[in-house]
Design brief:
Elements: H1 10-18, H2 26-40, H3 52-71, H4 81-98, H5 107-114
Length: 122
């Protein structure tokens, strides 16, 4: 077994921290620049993008259509006053028909009704 190496002393750590990073050699930099050009490859052609003369009129047309939709508010259909009167009369008749059931709205009466047996004998 190898013995554990001793940790570096404080002076060695200070020397390492104070030293500058080593730069690469000029030959490596030249080779890297040449290789980087090959790795990056060609730039994508601009023909794949939408031409500007199509894009801006399309955006303008979409904006105008959105504004037209916001400004156009359809008017509700005109209702006849006679139909409103008939609906009100039906509502009054329904209220009169349900008036005898008002007793059931009392909470005590509801509790009594909930505890009645399902099949009562009359």
């Amino acid at each position: 077994m190898k013995p554990d190496p001793l940790p570096p002393s404080d002076s060695e750590l200070d020397r390492l921290l104070a030293s500058r990073l080593k730069r690469t050699s000029p030959e490596f930099e030249l080779r890297w620049r040449a290789l980087r050009g090959e790795l990056v490859g060609r730039r994508p052609s601009r023909q794949r993008r939408w031409p500007q003369w199509i894009l801006w009129p399309g955006v303008t047309a979409g904006l105008l259509a959105a504004i037209a939709l916001v400004l156009h508010q359809p008017q509700p259909p005109a209702t006849d006053a006679r139909s409103n009167l008939v609906a009100f009369e039906e509502l009054i008749a329904l209220d009169a028909a349900l008036a005898p059931a008002l007793v059931l709205l009392d909470s005590d009466n509801r509790d009594v009704l909930l505890h009645l047996p399902a099949a009562s004998q009359l």
